[in-house]
Amino acid sequence: MTLEPVHIKEIHEIVDRIDTCFKKDDDDCEDIENISNILKRLRKLEYNGKVVLRSIGPVRRGKASIERMLQSEDPFPLSYSCDSGSTTAKTFDNGLYVDFCHCAMASTPSDLEIHSKRTIVAAAYTASDKVYINTSRNWELFDEGSGRKKIIRIQPGLLNKKVTDILHDVALYLSESEHILWMLDKIKSEGFFIMDGPIYPKRVMYWMVVNSEDVNIRIDPSSNKIIQNYIDIMDYHIENMRPLVGFVKNPEDMQIMLALKKQDAEIDLPWLVDAQFFKNALSLEKTGMDRRKAEKYITYTNWFIQPNQFYEKMLKSTSPLVAEMASGKFEPEDYALSFFMAYVPKLNTIFKIESPYGLIKSDEMRIRITRKVLYDLAMNSIPKTLSKADSIAKIPVSERRHIIDRFRNSKIDINYNEIRWDEKDER
After folding, report:
1. Average pLDDT over residues 170-199
2. At how many degrees (to 10) do helices 27-41 and 255-263 cross?
3. C-alpha dihedral over 187, 190, 196, 199, to 10 degrees?
4. Which residues contact 125 (CB under 8 A, 6 or more apart)?
5. Which of its termini does the chain have fewer beta carbons within 10 Å around, N or C?
6. Please, are residues 96 and 412 in contact by the beta-carbon 8 Å criterion?
7. Per-residue b/e over 178-215, b at no fewer than 16 CB within 10 Å?
8. Of 194, 213, 220, which is closest to residue 106 (Cα–Cα)?
9. What is the pLDDT of residue 112?
10. Kind and range of the H or E element at 241?
């Protein structure tokens, strides 16, 4: 039995009742004023004596004509991007957890030698000390040296909760960071490098500094290697002034909204996620512009820096283990996360573009990176090279099933939801 017309009618009535609460009227002017007031606070946002966010230069909103961008020259005609596909972490009824990540790099214009290089990491976990897993100490080469593979294991007892999440993150970030470092000498000096997602492995970094009996990856060699790898990647790009960005398609950060609410309990903010606020702040329709006209532009903010986060602190003062492993060449602030937001009205989508402060504190580099990102958004909505890397690295559902079916001595632990909904063709 499915929804009948009478049910649909009542649901529509509920929708209308909720939607009316957000009806556009004279309050729009007040919304615009509130957004402007919040933007002014972002010049330097402080809470509890610490700077949460500060703008690099004045806080401003810009708009770029898509038509003009299409008629301009590409600031970086040569670009590279790295991405990985995953089986997603699988659970077996004998207590085994495993995830495979397959990483590749793409370039524009296409370079088949670069595209052919692959890194595969299999991450495994079981709570039993008695189970022996034949891990790889060194990389094993295949395909005449074009590919590398490694099996790693998180030691028993380090994960009591969030096993699939942590295992996936370790496999993902180890494969991506190792592949980037392996390919650095293939990336030409005039190239522009785009990482898929944030520039740092945020969840791994979080669990490295939190005391928890449920997740204790501080002493996990692979997790420590991940941190060092990302520091090495940032060091290389800062030292050589090579442009690097992290293109975050689905920004979920909440620090700015939370800090504003803590700073002023009286402030009325309807947004929980930072991206929701920036989308409203960058909407040309909020200023009264017609939708069709608004879709001819890409709007964007100035750059911001978020000091006092994990990223620079981990080098000096958090976990002694991390400080011992992660040796950075630059001042802690140079590793601080910097970003700007870009809104594509045609897609009604906002993106967060990240880079380390040590790279974009140069005015020239910051301007060139901004122009390149806006150019790519005007050309393809998503950077073409990033889409290439995604298509090369992706593991299709059929292949995922074949991989898991190869386990003869382990039976997949399936719950009812998996039977009901089945697996979709997603990473």
Report:
1. 96
2. 90
3. 100
4. 96, 97, 98, 153, 154, 156, 159, 163, 167
5. N
6. no
7. bbbbebeeebeeebbbbbbbbbbbbbbbebbeeeeeeb
8. 194
9. 93
10. none
In the structure encoding, which two tokens stand for residue 208, read together?
């490295």
CB–CB of 387/376 below 8 Å?
no
List the end-to-end C-alpha distance of the chain, in Å, as a whole number: 33
Q: What pLDDT shows up at residue 43? A: 95
14-44 pLDDT, tens per residue? 888 877 776 665 555 556 768 888 999 999 9
Q: Report the distance separating Cα 222 and Cα 233, nearest Å.
A: 16
Q: Which DSSP state fits 92?
A: B
Break the chain into its structural domains and give their ranges.
Answer: 61-258+281-421
Element holding 93 (H helix, E strand)? none
Angle between helices 202-209 and 163-183 (to 10 degrees): 120
Q: By three-state DSSP, how is residue 186 classified?
A: helix
**Bond preceding residue 109 cis, omega within 30 of 0:** yes
pLDDT band at 272 (very low <50, low <70, confident <90, very high): very high
**How far, in Å, CA of 369 to CA of 128, rounded?**
49
- The encoded tokens of residue 18 equal 């909720």
pLDDT for position 319:
46
Encode pLDDT of 90-140 as tens digits: 999 999 999 999 999 999 999 999 999 999 999 999 999 999 999 988 999
Number of separate helices (H) and strands (E) present in the chain: 17, 15
Extract the tokens encoding 305: 């820096």
Q: Which residue has the tokens 């700073």?
A: 263
Q: CA-CA distances (angstroms) from residue 103 to 89, 119, 123?
A: 16, 5, 14
Q: Say how many C-beta atoms besides its own lie within 10 A of residue 242's C-beta.
A: 18
Number of other residues whose CB lies within 10 A of the CB of residue 72: 14
pTM for the full predicted model: 0.90
